[in-house]
User: Fold these one by one.
Assistant:
Number 1:
Amino acid sequence: FFEVSMAARRRAKIRASLPTDPPAQLVAAFAGLDALPDPEVLCAEERAAAMTAVATALNQIHAYLTDLAGAADAQGDSRVLRAGTTSTLVATTTGSTPAVGAGIVHTAQQLRDLPEVADAYRKGQISGMHVRAILDHSPHISGFAARQDAVVALAAATDPREVGRILQVIADNDTDNPHPTLSYAAQRDRRSA
């Protein structure tokens, strides 16, 4: 009835050929999800605390997925499993698009150079959106690796948009960076000067 593209059929064929038995530790870790309390019976305080706990767990799970993608990329899993590229492997195993798969792999590659950011992500202290804001700006700030602890503390204390805004200001004012990225406001100011 529906016409599915050739690329989508190929990914579905790859997905069908992949192993489906996860490590026992993962099965055990997720075994209790069906026993989570009904949000309707929790009081406001319990729901707020539960949202915080679930958000931290989701950050840790997203970080683990990113680590899995990074290890799969580094060890050539896509060739072993005949899945094409690592991005295609990630896309097919997660049910996402190849662009999302590529983004996860790229994030894993970038985090190899920022161990403190990666560690905070694994601990659930910062979200994937924080990581994206940090990775978008880190190449444009000289000496960024030495500033990771301060950036992680900032990210843990505020939302991703604010982290991006502050890092953009730092990048705009970084006179040691030969390839600055300028915000639209800074670009406009330079053109009018």
Number 2:
Amino acid sequence: PRFLSFHPASIAPPELVPLGQGPYVVRDRFQRPDSALTMGSAETGQAWSVGGTWGISSGRAYCVSNGNGNSAYVDSGVADAIIDCIVNGQPTDVAGYRLPAVMCRRINASNFLLVSMYGGNLRLHKSDAGVYTSLASVAMTTTDGVDYLIRIVLRGNLVQVLVDGVLRITYTLAGGDTKYAVATQHGMRLERS
């Protein structure tokens, strides 16, 4: 990713919050010296917590260790948020994909929500005790090596996913899945085959 920000969800309807304009809870444009050892801290001061090794290259965060499931996240202190992340990867290659996914409402390493583009679909998943389940999926044409702006709007049990400004998924958490509604860790995760 080359940009990641979290806005408080209460500030405005998501369509009225332009990319790159605050107020921010967390903001990181990854405009620091290249490093294959650390991502450092977000512009707003929060330290990145990581699974695997993450770094910065040419203004983009990337997973140095290249391990499936490696993640980088910050505790934003807010569960209701508007998350913007510009991602780029290989979402069309089903056999050899490598793509960053946006992780939100992370409780721990085995329990979180995940938004990814893969094999011609945009997907909202949950990981519950490490078991992945698709919550919502919509067909979407994707191209390898292209930047996509993923915006995730989190308000209570409501999860909305927009790609490049177009609303693609609206989903309401229910039953046991409402446990995710209060989690405040958000970030990114590498998904690969």
